[in-house]
Amino acid sequence: MSKTAVEKIFSEKSGNDVKAGDYVMANVDYVMVNDITGPIAVDAFNKLNMEAKSDKIIIIPDHFVPPKDVNSAIQYKTVKDFALKYNTNFYDIGKGGVCHQVMMEKGYAAPGRLIAGADSHTNTYGALSAISLGIGSTEAGVIFATGKMWFKVPETYKINLIGKPKEGIEGKDIILHILSKIKNDGAAYKCMEFTGDIKYIDINERMTMANMTTEAGAKCSFFDTDEKTIEYLNNRVIGDYRIIKSDDDANFEKIFNINMDEIENSIAIPNSPDNVKLISEVDTKIDQAYIGSCTNGRIEDIRKAALILKNHKINKNVRLMVVPASQEVYNQALKEGLIDIIVEAGGYFSGTTCGACLGGYMGVLGPDEICVSSTNRNFIGRMGDKSSKVYLANPKIVAASSILGRIGTPEEI
Amino acid sequence: MLNKIEGRIIVLGDNVDTDQIIPAKYLNTSDPEKLAPHFMENEYPDLAKTIKKGDIIVAGKNFGSGSSREHAVITIKGLGVSCIIAESFARIFFRNGINNGIPLIEAKINAENFGNIKIDFDKSTITYGSGIEHFNRYPEFLGKIIEKGGLINYVVSEKW
Ligand code: SF4
Q: Does B61 contact chain A (CB < 8 Å)?
């Protein structure tokens, strides 16, 4: 029988011939927790009195690291102690970064794998043709011990990408455009599968797109595997992987045709990522510009921002924060001289952390402040005070806006 | 799990996300007692104080969207809420609710704040002010997880 990619992967991992709608008990290849979701998982694990499946467990403190206060330090210590005690995979400060970026760059995410992560943006590894799902902490703790979990096999929405994006259009613009059509819970419980002219979309941009399928409520995402995928995986993937593809006549619940060549620079205005306007329709003054996160804090993003910032100064009313998504990204930015360019422009370049992306610390917004950000969410109060506002755009727009003092494009500089 | 529960209704709207349920700044603890007083505090500063043990939340679409933070469910459990009814749930919130032993029911009802509501799990009915609604039952094993009080007890009793 014809199957979608996600049906094939769940069939393989559960040892049964399953289809969308079925409940399965599936073997999970990897389970990831961070410093916020980890402590509850450790608690759950401890209640079970079982051995840990250490090779499958990946612990990546990122949200409140370096610890911002004593409580955060306690949470951090809880996951660190657990990792050391059970000899799990562990990425300490200075070695890791934002959990999803680390999962991809360290080679855990790969085609055909089933990965569960106690973080809602675990969807991101669909960029590398894995089925990766956000789960809660208690169930992550159960996977620590059992290596398996119950899931419902999702239906698939096929997003058929057609044509070549215009110059200057990024993965961020494409996914914002798609969110404006599908809406914030429009793909709830579904797998969003991207196919068609994906050859025009680089891996880092696929990651941005896969990352934001969470904002449509999707359970997971899936990009077909191509040469770009293989090239990214070479020299970093751990173990073997198997390329899986949906059958052409598989049962897709919906098919969306997206003409990529018609997409313009886009921006999500407060307070929802699906509240999308064209950049040309928005010219709001800003207080902060933020480049970072698992959405758009990769080396390619920082390169693009640096290219715009070179020989310019940040507007005097604006603070620019650049927060690399991982230590690897940081090191590369250092090597390429990108940090120099950013600090010379008057920007602030920090170590890797989730930081202000979730309003945790380091760049939290005060009352009525406005931020243009390369992150993925602009809910009420997401980055700070409930009256503050977040606009979501690609990192080039964020960099250009930091110079302009208002939301604008690189062409205006 | 009780076959029937009855409680006072607390009405919430559509798209109540996890950042609203419990703002990120409180995620440095997972203690229900510490989290509960901050439930929805940005939107409704007095709501947490109003909610009593046994109350039942009735919400609109996409309840619990946003992050995977189990803190959202723990906060609501900490308030003593006995059941959440929503037109639809965000999926991780749904998993967390079930895995923490809170019954979540997908149903669209037009309830009034502070009204009374009765849920009969055997008959799959909700009775309130103006009417009776039927809801879809869970697959059997999800019901069992709730019955056991959550995933941990279930895994132990089923010897996974
Ligand atoms: S960078 Fe932001 S979206 Fe990504 S995991 Fe951290 S808090 Fe979540």
A: yes
Q: Is the pLDDT of residue B2 over 70?
A: no
pLDDT in tens, B116-144: 999 999 899 999 987 899 998 888 888 89
Angle of helix A137-146 relative to helix B91-99, nearest 10 degrees, comes to 70
The residue in chain B having the minimum alpha-carbon distance to the alpha carbon of residue A133 is B92
Q: What is the CATH number of the domain that holds B38?
A: 3.20.19.10
Q: Is A322 helix (H, G, I), strand (E, B) or coil?
A: strand
Q: Is residue A89 less than 8 Å (CB to CB) from chain B?
A: no
- What does DSSP assign to residue A126? G
CA distances from A306 to A169, A320, A330, A403, B19 (A): 17, 12, 13, 12, 32
Residue A215 Cα, gap to closest chain B Cα (Å): 8
Our count of domains for chain B comes to 1
B41 lies in which domain range? 4-158
Lowest average pLDDT, out of A273-282, A298-307, A379-388, B49-58, goes to A379-388
Q: What is the pTM of this model?
A: 0.93
One-letter amino acid at B49 equals K
Q: How far is A273 from chain B (nearest CA, A)?
A: 11
Task: Write out chain A residues lying below 8 Å of B160, CB-based.
Answer: 142, 145-146, 148
The residue-averaged pLDDT of B87-104 equals 93
C-alpha A325/C-alpha A104 separation (Å) is 11
Q: State the best of B16, B22, B27 to mutate against chain A, taking most chain A CBs within 10 Å.
A: B27
Packed helices A299-309 and A327-335: angle between N→C axes, nearest 10 degrees: 40
